[in-house]
Amino acid sequence: MGKIILTGDRPTGRLHVGHYVGSLKRRVELQNSGQFDEIYIMIADAQALTDNADNPEKVRQNIIEVALDYLACGLDPAKSTLFIQSQIPELCEMTFYYMDLVTVSRLQRNPTVKSEIQMRNFETSIPVGFFTYPISQAADITAFKATTVPVGEDQAPMIEQTREIVHKFNTVYGGNLVEPDILLPDNKACLRLPGIDGKAKMSKSLGNCIYLSDSEEEIQKKIMSMYTDPNHLRVQDPGQVEGNPVFIYLDAFCTDAHFEEYLPEYQNLDELKAHYMRGGLGDVKVKKFLNNVIQEELRPIRERRREIAKDIPAVYKILEEGSIRAEKKAAETLAEMKRAMKINYFEDKELIAEQAARFKSESEG
Ligand code: ATP
Ligand code: MG
Fewer Cβ atoms within 10 Å of its own Cβ: the N or the C terminal residue of the chain? Predict the structure, then answer.
């Protein structure tokens, strides 16, 4: 069996450095590794509408932003199929059948959905579509027979749910769906990058992001105003690196080479952390270093993005062609599913013959 990747992002905003370290950077590496037979990257507009039903324009505007971020980071349409979720109607059909295999209480247990409901103040009125989006995500993954889903840690419950649905489908219907594996970042700091406000997760919906497309000035402003250790008031005070976003970002982004280039008085991050914990190292100095590191990483992405944005119709064309390719694959899987569920009445010659014989014998008997 071939190795297949499916992953994606919601077009609820431009992509940020959390996406980059949590998933996007890895995707590009995997794409270029040559180890995968098929790669599908989905812009999840239908999922974005589950909590933005009253704001379709936001979703519509952000599709191109996400596509530009993809291409700027190095996703290559010659190697990866980039497509838009809503253009694949088969996914809705699959979702509808998967809904029969999942209980309400199982959905209620999903910790990511639980915290997202809280974050969006949905407690008293959860849209059904939002509540059930993990089921639709199972359709997204299984439609492409994905073996591997490179995502951030918040997606682990979705992959678990998908595996359960696949198992149930295959057991009940004798189907041939594939149980996917999650592929998390190796670097612990990248699992769930916090926001610049120190909140648990950098998230488009929380507005605490450094975007891949931010200008040099915007990035610098955000980094210099970042939340750090609130008890580290004076330079001489000992500081905490644990849970301190500035140090978590350094964990995610910096290498020893960055020290050589921008902060040669330290060999590596361990030495810098030790000094901060001892006291005598100010936040401003650490932030300036972080700014240098992040600017170096984001500059080429921003410049490529600007180049690609010169031909927007070409970007839509890439998405259109990708969507056509993706639909073909999803339609094949759906046809197999319907065969397994025995709801392929018109191609089931045996069924028709069987029923004909039954009615014939009834009328004769
Ligand atoms: P929204 O607030 O609309 O849900 P989001 O910022 O959470 O947006 P998604 O589109 O939901 O972004 O997530 C896309 C991918 O990026 C997923 O694989 C997710 O795990 C990963 N991801 C999102 N935020 C982070 C983060 N802060 N750290 C690491 N990975 C992240
Ligand atoms: Mg999210």
Answer: C
Helix, strand or coil, per DSSP, at residue 171: helix
With a cut of 70, list the residues of the chain below it in pLDDT: 1
State whether the beta carbon of 185 lies less than 6 angstroms from ligand 1: no
Ligand closest to Cα of 51 equals 1
CB atoms within 10 A of CB 194: 21
Ligand 1 contact via 19 beta carbon (within 6 Å): yes
The domain ranges of the chain are: 4-192+311-350, 216-308
Mutation probe of ligand 1 site: the residue of 19, 59, 201 with most atoms within 8 A of C-beta: 19
User: What's the pTM value of the predicted model, to 2 decimals?
Assistant: 0.93
- Judge if the beta carbon of residue 205 lies within 6 A of ligand 1: yes
Residue 1: the pLDDT is: 65
The pLDDT tens digits for 129-187 are: 999 999 999 999 999 999 999 998 899 999 999 999 999 999 999 989 999 999 998 88
What distance in Å separates the CA atoms of residue 84 and residue 319, rounded to the nearest whole number? 7
Q: Ligand 2: distance of its center to the CA of 96 in Å?
A: 22
Query: Do β-strands 4-9 and 38-43 pair in parallel, antiparallel, or remain unpaired?
Result: parallel
Strand order in the sheet with 81-84: 81-84, 38-43, 4-9, 148-150, 181-183
- Is domain 4-192+311-350 in CATH 3.30.499.10, yes or no? no
- Residue having the nearest C-alpha atom to atom 13 of ligand 1: 9
Q: Which residues of 21-46 are buried (b: 16+ CB within 10 A; e: fewer)?
A: bbbbbbbbebbeeeebebbbbbbbbb
Per the CB < 8 A criterion, the answer to whether 196 and 227 are in contact is yes
Q: Is the CB of 62 under 6 A from ligand 1?
A: no
Q: What is the pLDDT of residue 273?
A: 96
**342 φ, ψ to 5°?**
60, 40
Instruction: Pick the ligand that lies closest to the CA of residue 50.
Output: 1
Looking at domain 216-308, what is its CATH homologous superfamily?
Tyrosyl-Transfer RNA Synthetase (1.10.240.10)
Cα–Cα distance for residue pair 311/323, rounded to 1 Å: 19
